[in-house]
Amino acid sequence: MRIATWNVNSVRTRVDRVVDWMQRADIDVLAMQETKCADDQFPAMTFLGAGYEVMHCGHDQWNGVAIASRVGFDDVQVGFPGQPTWEGRNEARALGATCAGVRVWSLYVPNGRAVGDPHYRYKLEWLAALRDTAQSWVSANTQAQIALMGDWNIAPRDDDVWSMEVFQGSTHVTAPERAAFAAIEESFADVVRPSTPGPGVYTYWDYTRLRFPRREGMRIDFILASPALAERVVHAEIARDERKSGKDRIGSPSDHAPVFVEVR
After folding, report:
1. Which domain holds residue 89?
2. Tell me, what's the pLDDT at 224?
3. Tell me, what CATH number does 206's domain have?
4. Residue 246 pLDDT more than 90?
5. Domain count, the chain
6. What is the pTM of this model?
7. DSSP calls for the chain
């Protein structure tokens, strides 16, 4: 089974491109982030026409997470226990479902905006809550098959950004954010990095200043697997070419590339 994650940066804009890649890459389950639409605006029929059921959580033109599966759904859950709110509202940032025995979570971690901003504190609280909840799942069942997938908005290592000098003092690379990511890695393994070692291996490139052709990116999209699931991963890949545009591509690209693993 192939499971993937992709920040699609507006699913209505890129639905044909997303489904085309899923079929070419033989993807069974895709976790999407930043769908940027309400539930009633989600282009579900395009996925259904390609043989994928889809679940979506979105409130407006911000955030939004979804899971598309051609192996079915069980136990769909919006948000995880203890997930913090922002300004009193539950944001569309976490969606879970069991697909062919694997508990898949599509996660869109808060950006943080700027160090010292209330959103930065919210980001750290969000990650701490996810750590506590995810660790409790593994503690309760050491054989649990869980994939925490998505846009984490963290570059855990210096090699995960094209220039630490440029990012110095910015979010995504601060010690507290990296410590929060590392705390989750105490119970879950990054199952993509071993197959895609850096430096210079990224999943995100800003649209401005020709970042993509200049190879000036960040690695911020990850699949973290529970120990029992990690043992089953036989292949992992960052589909970098899907960030490209051109005549042979359908529509405009997202600023992120899809990341996927194959599970035995």
Report:
1. 2-263
2. 99
3. 3.60.10.10
4. no
5. 1
6. 0.97
7. -EEEEEE-S-HHHHHHHHHHHHHHTT-SEEEEE---S-GGGS-HHHHHHTT-EEEEE--SSS--EEEEESS--EEEEES-TTPPPBTTB--S-EEEEEETTEEEEEEE-----STTSHHHHHHHHHHHHHHHHHHHHHHH-TT--EEEEEE-----SGGGBS-HHHHTTSTTSSHHHHHHHHHHHTTSEESSGGGS--SS--SB--SGGGTTTTT--B--EEEEE-HHHHTTEEEEEE-GGGG--STTSSSPPPSB--EEEEE-
